[in-house]
From TrEMBL:
Residues 474-487 have a biased composition (Basic and acidic residues). One of its GO terms (cellular component) is membrane. This is Aluminum-activated malate transporter 10-like. InterPro entries: ALMT. It is a multi-pass membrane protein. Keywords: Ion channel, Ion transport, Membrane, Transmembrane, Transmembrane helix, Transport. The chain crosses the membrane at residues 68-86, 98-118, 124-142, 176-197, 209-230.
Length: 503
């Protein structure tokens, strides 16, 4: 006998249409089925998000391994500090305040040595001064009696907190001791207020100062000994890389303006990115200032001593930004819809291209000077060539009005001939001036950039003098072994004197 449930499962509903076709109606799924499908969708999206996060983290670690190393260094430091809490002898010596060492590591450990030293020194000094002052105020308040004790503590907190907060607005304090001043306010308030109710305030202050000293010492040692990342070195690399980017942008803008074929194939997209390199120079002012401030806290390392003139790098960066502003205007002129006629471009093409090549040579030589920390022996010659190229461009610009009339007269319609003078009356020269304006703007920018490049060269030369860069010729120990080298040196001296006469 067939059961009713089996019959209900075999039954199905159909809709018959007039054309003879039919459609089976599928019953709707229940609430549990819908819930399960929704949960599977959410679980799949969550797994996909986790996989994308892991992929991005892996790509970041491969692109910038310094960040991975910094994470490992922080973990190692926290592990060493936690031993003071796990080991009984160390814990008995420091007590429950051993946790302050862990908090110190988390707060002060930064990715580079300069930032770590800045925070460590400021934290130790701020904690020591605030703790000592708070203990002194607490001792005086205790001697004054129960009536005046809370009043003295409250007035001292008000006065010192107000004075320290105001001092953070002073430029010198804000630059070097802003973090230390904040720690001073925090420590003084905590010790003063908690000392009013707690006993053994001196022992508590001593333990906290000891734990902070332990945490900061471990941070400094591990930051310097294990794959150190120096702020000064990062600033040094940033400056000379920006010089190379600025040189590529200058040469690329002029080349793009005077090239005949404006279509950019897929293989030349990297060149368009190189042209935009001047934007990196414009956007790194804050980074340069931060690195220069932190570099002053670092000890001597690599090729840089403790008194290395880091502030001079800021002057070099400022002159580079002045030049980058002109490059930005030059790039806008290149991409402008109003372009000069081709015969005008052709007249000044060689002079402009030669000048852009001189810009690139000078900037790349300055980049090598900073990279190798050596004075260049041919920078004066390159600047002389740049000055000569500027003079040639100015001469070519003066000859433009005479050469423009010929193609202009060929393209204009002649008016009726004057019987008295027997000369045709052509159109006014106003359209010619309008056509020449875009090219004149470009030329004026190129001449202005020459002055900006000289400012960069002067700033780099001052840096070389302050940092005592060695001459490139000093690195050749076998210079006087042959007899032909003095003649070549004499020829080099003559060539270096030629550009100075052209200035």
């Amino acid at each position: 006998m067939v059961k009713e449930n089996d019959l209900s499962e075999k039954l199905e509903w159909r809709i018959n249409f007039p054309d003879g076709k039919s459609k089976v109606l599928v019953p709707e799924s229940g609430i549990l089925d819908k819930t399960w499908v929704g949960l599977k969708g959410l679980l799949g999206r969550f797994i996909l998000m986790v996989l994308r996060f892991l992929e991005n983290a892996w790509n970041l670690g491969v692109a910038e391994p310094k960040k991975v190393i910094h994470g490992v260094k922080v973990g190692l430091t926290l592990f060493l500090v936690s031993l003071f809490y796990y080991m009984r002898p160390l814990y008995d010596g420091l007590g429950g305040n051993a946790m302050w060492a862990i908090m110190t590591v988390v707060v002060v450990f930064e990715s580079n040595v300069g930032a770590t030293l800045y925070k460590c020194v400021n934290r130790v000094i701020g904690t020591f001064l605030a703790g000592s002052l708070a203990l002194g105020v607490q001792w005086i308040a205790c001697k004054s009696g129960e009536t005046f004790e809370p009043m003295l503590v409250g007035v001292s907190v008000f006065f010192f907190a107000s004075a320290a907060t105001f001092s953070r607005f002073i430029p010198s304090v804000k630059t070097h001791f802003d973090y230390g001043t904040m720690i001073f306010i925090l420590t003084f308030s905590l010790v003063s207020v908690s000392g009013y109710r707690a006993d053994e305030v001196f022992q508590l202050g001593h333990q906290r100062l000891s734990t902070i000293a332990i945490g900061t010492s471990l941070c400094i040692v591990i930051s310097i000994l294990i794959y150190p990342i120096w702020s000064g070195t990062e600033l040094h690399l940033l400056i000379f890389r920006n010089l190379g980017k600025l040189a590529d942008s200058l040469e690329g803008c002029v080349t793009e303006y005077f090239e005949e074929d404006k279509t950019v194939p897929e293989s030349e997209k990297d060149d368009s990115k190189r042209i935009q390199g001047y934007k990196c120079v414009l956007n790194c002012k804050g980074t340069e200032e931060s690195m220069a401030k932190l570099a002053t806290w670092e000890p001597g390392h690599d090729r840089f001593n403790f008194r290395h003139p880091w502030k001079q790098y800021l002057k070099v960066g400022a002159t580079m930004r002045n030049c980058a502003y002109c490059v930005e205007a030059l790039n806008s002129s290149v991409n402008s819809k109003n372009q000069a006629p081709e015969h005008l471009k052709k007249h000044l093409r060689d002079a402009c291209m030669a000048l852009s090549s001189c810009y690139s040579d000078v900037l790349k030589e300055l980049a090598l000077t900073i990279e190798n920390t050596t004075k260049s022996s041919k920078i004066d010659f390159l600047i002389g060539e740049m000055n000569f190229a500027v003079q040639e461009l100015e001469d070519a610009l003066k000859s433009v009005p005479n050469s423009v009339t010929e193609p202009a007269e060929l393209s204009t319609l002649e008016a009726p001939i004057n019987e008295a003078n027997r000369e045709p009356v052509t159109k006014t020269t106003l359209p010619l001036i309008v056509e020449f304006l875009p090219l004149a703007t470009l030329v004026s920018l190129l001449i202005e950039i020459a002055a900006r490049v000289k400012e960069i060269a002067n700033a780099v030369d001052q840096l070389a003098d302050l940092a005592k860069f060695k001459l490139t010729m000093d690195e050749k120990p076998n210079q006087k072994k042959t007899t032909k080298e003095p003649t070549s040196d004499a020829q080099d001296d003559e060539t270096t004197k030629i550009p100075q006469n052209l200035r």
